[in-house]
Amino acid sequence: MTDITRIPLPSIDPGHVWLAGAGPGDPGLLTLLTAKALSEADVIVHDALVNEDCLKLARTGAVLEYAGKRGGKPSAKQRDISLRLVDLAKAGHRVLRLKGGDPFVFGRGGEEALTLVEHGIPFRIIPGVTAGIGGLAYAGIPVTHREVNHTVTFLTGHDSSGVVPDRIDWEAIGRGSPVIVMYMAMKHMGQIARNLIAAGRSPDEAVAFVCDAATSSQKVLETTLGRAEQDMLEAGIEPPAIVVVGKVVRLRPSLDWLGALSGRRLVPDPFAISERKDRA
């Protein structure tokens, strides 16, 4: 077995902050740098979406500080979190700021990094596997497939005030993006679905909700754009969730590798089957 300690990775220095992504859930998706940071940091400031199994890798004696940051739940103010990182670094601590997914993909990592720059705090950015890609992969849904799409759009379902972002050009996205991946969209799913249908998307278009992605609690709801809000409510699913719209959802019966580990029988490529029927 390869000894990862032999890989020349950097270490956190006192007074430095590392902004890292923990991925969508599974600790196995942590990068080597993030795992090393967990083993070295004096203080780990983490979000609610960081899987507790990831935090078990923290070194003995490390201080774990909960920063919240979960939609609809009590959380510290962003500015307070950013300034807390500054204070910890100025006190000489080795600080790991650990976020779910990737810190620069709807993670507000840029805001925190800019505060560190403002106060002269040295930092490192460690990307993570964003839930919009890794979470869907754990549901057996690829964000791209050459029979479906050559573009994909990632968007957030609410802005800083908690409403559907009015700066999103729904008509352009509805017309131009075959696959749409949405973060924090459940609260306003009805309005989002109506916006996309008004932009020309079919009410029968495939939609999937992936809740608690890449964890032992993962749930996947497959539905359509027209029924998304109703089925979501009837199923009783709750955030955190990634929502994906597009034909790639139809690949799940073929690519649900987690389901296959539990006995689900995977079916052949649905697009190839469709092509054979068309030729016949």
Shape: globular
Q: Fraction of residues in helices?
A: 25-40%
Number of domains: 2
Q: How is the largest sheet built, in terms of strand order? A: 3-2-4-1-5
DSSP strand count: 10
According to CATH, what is the topology of the largest domain?
Methyltransferase, Cobalt-precorrin-4 Transmethylase, Domain 2
- Under the CATH scheme, which architecture of the largest domain would be assigned? 2-Layer Sandwich
- Uncertain runs are none
Structural class: alpha/beta
Number of helices: 11
Q: Main β-sheet, in a few words?
A: 5 strands, parallel
- The share of residues in extended strands comes to 15-25%
**CATH uppermost class of the largest domain:** Alpha Beta
CATH superfamily membership of the largest domain? Tetrapyrrole methylase, C-terminal domain
Rg from Cα? 20 Å
* Mean pLDDT level: 92
Distance between the termini: 52 Å
Order of helices and strands: EHEHEHEHEHEHEHEEHEHHH
InterPro entries: 4pyrrol_Mease, 4pyrrol_Methylase_sf, 4pyrrole_Mease_sub1, 4pyrrole_Mease_sub2, CobA/CysG_C, Siro_Cobalamin_biosynth, Uropor_MeTrfase_CS
Keywords: Methyltransferase, Porphyrin biosynthesis, S-adenosyl-L-methionine, Transferase
Pathway: Porphyrin-containing compound metabolism; siroheme biosynthesis; precorrin-2 from uroporphyrinogen III: step 1/1
Domain Tetrapyrrole methylase: 17-227
Topology:
Layout: E1 17-21, H1 32-40, E2 43-46, H2 52-55, E3 63-66, H3 78-90, E4 95-99, H4 109-118, E5 123-126, H5 131-138, E6 152-156, H6 170-176, E7 179-183, H7 189-198, E8 206-211, E9 219-224, H8 228-235, E10 241-245, H9 252-255, H10 257-261, H11 270-279
Parallel strand pairs: 1-4, 1-5, 2-3, 2-4, 6-7
Antiparallel strand pairs: 7-10, 8-9, 8-10
